[in-house]
Amino acid sequence: MKQLKVSKPSTPPKSAAASSRAPVGLFVAGLVATIAALGYVALDQTVLGGLNAHLHAVYDPYGRYGQPGPLYGYLYALDGLGVASWLICLHRVRYGARSARIWSVSVLVLAGLAISPLMLQEYGRLVFGIQFGAMFSVIWLIGLAGTLLLFRRAASR
């Protein structure tokens, strides 16, 4: 009598799981960093007032005032989309989806475009404080490293 082997469809194959540890680790680090950035944005808006003070320093000498509300809204949207993107990338990489590399590159390119406004300047100074540009750039670099490891893993097969 023949016995059928039944495997769980939700677990990745052993080879895919073993070779995807490094990208998964980086994607988890990116997710944690994005959640920490979300916490920092909320803390800055409610307690620290860093962006508001920065806007006063940039615009007050020119008799203008920049409203921090839309800028905080942009940062929250950036964080929310970042968390969703990290989770989708993690899911695709962890379960060996063939589209993991395509998805990761697409998210990386779109994230690069999304964080570029953080580097905009007006009156010779950054509109957003340097801390926001640096924080999101580091998170983007984590995504770049994870994506490069996905391609390295594919080349070594």
Summary?
The protein has helices spanning 14-19, 21-48, 50-59, 68-94, 100-115, 130-155, and strands at residues 121-122, 125-126.
SSE blueprint and pairings:
Elements: H1 14-19, H2 21-48, H3 50-59, H4 68-94, H5 100-115, E1 121-122, E2 125-126, H6 130-155
Antiparallel strand pairs: 1-2
Helix pairs in contact: 2-4, 2-6, 4-5, 5-6
What does this structure look like?
- The protein is mostly helical and 157 residues long.
- 72% of the residues lie in helices and 3% in strands.
- The protein has helices at 14-19, 21-48, 50-59, 68-94, 100-115, 130-155; strands spanning 121-122, 125-126.
- The chain has a two-stranded antiparallel ribbon.
- A hairpin with a 2-residue loop joins strand 1 (121-122) and strand 2 (125-126).
- Helix 2 (21-48) runs antiparallel to helix 6.
- The longest helix has 28 residues, at 21-48.
Please tag this protein with its features:
single chain, 157 residues, 2 strands
What's the shape?
A: elongated
Poorly predicted segments: 13-18
The average pLDDT is 85
Terminal-residue CA separation = 37 Å
Characterize the main sheet.
2 strands, antiparallel
What gyration radius follows from the Cα positions, in whole Å? 20 Å
Helix content range? over 70%
| Tally of DSSP helical segments | 6
Widest sheet: strand ordering: 1-2
